[in-house]
C-alpha cells in the first residue's frame, strides 16, 4: 500500500510564510517521462519530413511534353483520367490546353472490347483515350467522328475543334481516311452512345444501327458489338483504387462543409451545451437523451435517402442529363447500403440503451449532484469555459496542414508511359505516319512505399489529436483540483489563475507524461487494426480454426483487445488527473488513480458510469448534428453539379462526424474532467484524513458521503 502524498496535497506555506492557494499544482515537481517527450518531438520531425515528401512529390506533376514548371492541381489528379498524350484531363497547362475538357473518352471501341476479354493481355489503360467536353453520341442520320487533337496538317484551333464536335474527317487526306477506317486514327467513328460516369465516358452496349451501317458502307473494319464493351469501362471505374481516389477527392471538394460542419458548428453547439449544463444541471440529462434519439434517427434516414431505399434522392454515378431508363450501379452505392444497415443497427441499440439510461437517471440523483458540483466549479473558474478555444485553434491549424499534406501524399507519383506488347498502332499527325513504337497508354506510377507514408501520416494525425486532447484534459484537471484543495474559497485571482498555473505546470513538467499517455491508445488500436486485417485474410483463406478451443480463442481475442482499449482509455483519463494533482510520471499516476478507483469503487462506480454515459451521449449529439448538417450542405446544387459533384456523401459526412466528436471532446472535457477530478480528489482527501474528506464541498459530501444513497446505487 502506498503511503500518503503528504506535502503535495492541500495548501503549503510559501517562503515568505503566507499560505498559497493551489499549492499542490506547484510544489515538489520535476520533469517526468522525458524520454517519451523526445520520442514525440522526433515523431513530429518525421511528420514534417513525411509531409514535405508529399508536397515535393505530389504537387509538381511532371508530364510528357510539359514545360518544366507546369503543374496540375491534385484534385484533378484524383478525379480525372489521362489522354493518349499523358495529360490529365482538365489541365489548362497541358499541350494542347485542356481547360474544361474534363471527360475521358476511349476512341477505339475494339480496344475497349479487347481489354474486357478474359485472360486478355491488353489493358484498358493502353486503349487510346482523349479528353472531351461532353460524351459523344451517335447521329440519327449520319456517322459522327471524334478525331485526335488537331496538329500537323490539321490547322484548327482547339476551340474550333470543339465547335465542330471534335470532327475534322472531311479535312483528312486519303491516307488518313484509310487509317481511320482501320481504327488507327486520327479519326474514330462514334458507333456506341456513351454516358458520363464519374468523368469517364462509359459505353452503352447498344450500337447505333444507322452509324454502324454507314461505317460498313465506307469499308470500315469489323467492330465488336458486345456487352463486354460496357463492362470493361465499368470495371475500371469501380476498381478499388479508383473509388479510393474519388473518396479522397470528395474531401478536397467539400472543404467548406468540413470547415462549417466539422469546425464551426460543433464549436457553437458545444459552447451552448456548456452554458446549459451551467444553468440547467437537472434537465440536461433528459435533454441530451431526447436530442440524441432524434439526431440518430434523422441521420439514419439520410443514409436511407442517399442509399435509395426511401424517396428519390439516391446518389448516382452518372453526371449530367442522361436517359432516365439507363442506370449504372457504383461501388459507392454498395458502401452507402452497408452504412445504412449499420446505422439501423446502431439506432435500434442506441434507442433501447437510452431507455435503460432513463431508468438509471431516475435512480441516480448522485449523478445530478456531482454535475452540480462541477457546474459550480465551472461557474467559479470562468476561464474553464474559454480555455478549450485554445486547443481547438491549435487543432484547427494542425488539421489544415494535415489535410493538405494528405492530398499531396495521395497524389504523389509520376505519369509514365506503359510498356505494352499489344498492337496499339495509331496515326501520328506530327510525324505524318502510323506509329507502332510508342503508342501505349499512360498510367500513374506511385512512389515506392507510399502506403507506408500514408499509414504513418494517418497514425500521426491520431496521435497528435490524442496528445492535444490529453493536454487540454490535464490543464482542466489541474484547475479543478486546485479549486477543490482550496476548499472552493474564491479570490480575485481564482477565475483565471488556476487555468494558467495548470498550463504552466503541464508545459514545464508533464508534457512527456502526456505524450506517453496519448501514445498508448493509438498504439493499441493500431495493433488491433493489424490483427483484424490478419483475421479477415485468414477468414477469406478459410483457415479459421475449426476446433472448439481454436474458435474460442479466435473470437475472444478481438473482444479482449476491445476491452484492453476501453480500460486503457479510462486509465489514461484518470492518470491525467493524478498527473495534474501529484506531478508523478504517467505510469505512477496511473497506478495511483487505479488504486483510488478500486478502493472507492462503491462510492464512485455508478456515478462515474452513468455520468460518463450522459457526457458520451452529449458528445454524440454534437457529432451527429455535424453529420446531419453535412448531409444538408452536400445536398445543395453546388455538390450535385458536374464540376463539384461528389461521388458520395459518405466520407465527408464521416469526417465531419469525427471532427465534431473531437471538438465536442475538447469542450465536454470541461465537465467530464471536472467531475472526475473532483471525485478523485475526494477519494484522495478521504484517504489522507482517515475516511473523512476535509476539503470537499457540502454538496459533494452529501452525495458521496451518504451511505444510504450509495447502497441504493449499488443494488
UniProtKB/TrEMBL annotation:
Gene Ontology CC terms, in alphabetical order: plasma membrane
Keywords for the protein's UniProt record, in alphabetical order: Glycoprotein, Membrane, Transmembrane, Transmembrane helix
Top-level taxon: Eukaryota
Membrane topology listed for this record: Multi-pass membrane protein
TM regions (residue ranges): 34-55, 255-276, 283-305, 336-362, 383-409, 506-531, 613-634, 646-671
Any one GO molecular function term: transmembrane transporter activity
Secretion signal span: none
Pfam family, one: Choline_transpo
Primary location class: membrane
InterPro entries on file: Choline_transptr-like
Localisation per UniProt entry: Cell membrane; Membrane
Family of this protein: Belongs to the CTL (choline transporter-like) family.
Annotated function: Choline transporter.
UniProt protein name: Choline transporter-like protein
The organism's taxonomic lineage, starting at the top: Eukaryota, Viridiplantae, Streptophyta, Embryophyta, Tracheophyta
Amino acid at each position: 500500500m502506498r503511503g500518503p502524498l503528504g506535502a503535495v496535497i492541500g495548501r503549503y506555506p510559501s517562503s515568505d510564510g503566507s499560505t498559497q492557494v493551489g499549492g499542490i499544482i506547484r510544489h515538489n515537481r520535476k520533469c517526468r517521462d522525458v524520454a517519451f517527450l523526445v520520442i514525440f518531438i522526433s515523431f513530429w520531425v518525421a511528420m514534417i519530413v513525411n509531409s514535405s515528401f508529399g508536397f515535393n512529390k505530389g504537387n509538381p506533376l511532371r508530364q510528357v511534353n510539359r514545360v518544366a514548371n507546369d503543374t496540375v492541381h491534385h484534385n484533378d489528379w484524383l478525379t480525372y483520367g489521362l489522354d493518349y498524350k499523358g495529360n490529365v484531363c482538365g489541365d489548362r497547362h497541358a499541350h494542347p490546353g485542356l481547360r474544361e475538357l474534363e471527360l475521358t473518352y476511349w476512341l477505339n471501341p475494339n480496344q475497349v472490347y479487347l481489354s474486357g476479354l478474359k485472360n486478355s493481355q491488353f489493358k484498358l489503360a493502353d486503349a487510346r483515350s482523349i479528353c472531351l467536353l461532353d460524351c459523344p453520341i451517335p447521329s440519327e442520320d449520319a456517322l459522327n467522328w471524334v478525331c485526335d487533337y488537331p496538329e500537323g496538317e490539321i490547322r484548327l484551333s482547339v476551340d474550333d475543334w470543339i465547335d465542330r464536335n471534335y470532327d475534322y474527317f472531311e479535312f483528312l487526306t486519303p491516307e488518313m481516311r484509310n487509317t481511320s477506317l482501320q481504327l488507327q486514327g486520327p479519326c474514330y467513328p462514334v458507333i456506341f452512345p456513351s454516358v458520363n460516369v464519374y468523368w469517364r465516358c462509359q459505353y452503352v452496349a447498344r450500337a447505333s444501327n444507322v452509324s454502324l451501317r454507314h461505317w460498313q458502307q465506307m469499308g470500315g473494319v469489323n467492330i465488336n458489338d458486345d456487352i463486354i464493351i460496357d463492362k470493361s469501362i465499368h470495371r475500371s471505374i469501380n476498381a478499388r483504387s479508383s473509388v479510393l481516389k474519388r473518396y479522397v477527392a470528395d474531401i478536397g471538394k467539400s472543404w467548406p462543409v468540413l470547415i462549417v460542419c466539422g469546425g464551426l458548428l460543433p464549436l457553437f453547439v458545444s459552447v451552448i451545451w456548456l452554458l446549459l449544463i451551467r444553468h440547467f444541471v437537472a434537465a440536461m440529462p433528459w435533454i441530451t437523451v431526447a436530442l440524441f434519439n432524434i439526431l440518430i434517427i434523422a441521420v439514419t434516414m439520410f443514409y436511407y435517402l442517399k442509399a435509395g431505399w426511401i424517396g428519390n434522392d439516391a446518389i448516382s454515378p452518372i453526371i449530367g442529363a442522361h436517359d432516365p431508363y439507363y442506370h449504372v450501379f457504383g461501388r459507392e452505392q454498395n458502401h452507402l447500403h452497408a452504412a445504412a444497415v449499420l446505422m439501423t443497427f446502431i439506432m435500434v441499440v442506441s434507442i433501447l440503451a437510452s431507455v435503460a439510461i432513463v431508468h438509471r437517471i431516475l435512480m441516480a440523483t448522485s449523478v445530478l449532484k456531482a454535475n452540480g458540483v462541477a457546474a459550480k466549479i465551472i461557474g467559479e473558474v470562468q476561464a474553464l469555459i474559454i480555455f478549450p478555444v485554445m486547443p481547438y485553434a491549435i487543432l484547427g491549424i494542425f488539421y489544415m496542414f494535415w489535410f493538405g499534406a494528405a492530398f499531396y501524399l495521395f497524389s504523389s507519383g509520376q505519369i509514365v508511359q506503359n510498356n505494352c506488347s499489344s498492337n496499339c498502332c495509331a496515326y501520328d499527325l506530327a510525324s505524318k505516319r502510323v506509329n507502332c513504337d510508342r503508342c501505349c497508354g499512360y498510367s500513374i506510377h506511385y512512389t515506392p512505399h507510399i502506403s507506408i507514408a500514408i499509414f504513418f501520416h494517418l497514425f500521426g494525425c491520431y496521435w497528435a489529436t490524442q496528445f492535444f486532447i490529453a493536454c487540454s484534459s490535464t490543464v482542466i484537471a489541474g484547475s479543478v483540483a486546485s479549486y477543490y484543495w482550496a476548499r472552493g474559497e474564491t479570490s480575485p485571482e481564482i477565475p483565471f489563475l488556476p487555468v494558467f498555473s495548470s498550463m504552466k505546470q503541464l508545459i514545464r513538467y508533464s508534457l512527456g507524461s502526456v505524450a506517453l499517455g496519448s501514445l498508448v491508445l493509438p498504439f493499441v488500436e493500431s495493433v488491433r487494426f493489424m490483427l483484424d486485417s490478419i483475421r479477415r485474410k485468414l477468414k477469406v483463406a478459410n483457415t479459421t480454426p475449426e476446433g472448439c478451443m481454436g474458435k474460442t480463442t479466435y473470437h475472444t481475442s478481438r473482444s479482449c483487445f476491445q476491452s484492453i482499449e476501453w480500460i486503457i482509455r479510462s486509465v489514461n483519463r484518470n492518470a491525467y488527473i493524478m498527473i495534474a494533482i501529484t506531478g508523478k510520471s504517467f505510469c505512477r499516476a496511473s497506478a495511483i488513480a487505479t488504486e483510488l478507483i478500486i478502493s472507492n469503487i462503491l462510492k464512485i462506480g455508478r456515478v462515474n458510469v452513468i455520468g460518463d454515459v450522459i457526457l458520451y451521449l452529449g458528445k454524440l449529439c454534437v457529432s451527429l448534428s455535424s453529420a446531419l448538417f453535412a448531409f444538408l450542405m452536400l445536398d445543395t446544387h453546388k455538390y450535385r453539379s458536374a464540376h463539384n459533384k461528389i461521388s458520395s456523401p459518405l466520407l465527408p459526412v464521416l469526417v465531419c462526424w469525427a471532427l465534431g466528436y473531437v471538438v465536442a471532446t475538447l469542450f465536454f472535457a470541461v465537465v467530464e474532467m471536472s467531475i472526475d477530478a473532483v471525485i478523485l480528489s475526494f477519494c484522495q482527501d478521504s484517504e489522507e484524513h482517515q475516511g473523512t474528506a476535509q476539503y470537499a464541498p457540502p454538496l459533494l459530501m452529501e452525495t458521496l458521503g451518504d451511505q444510504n444513497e450509495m447502497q441504493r446505487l449499488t443494488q
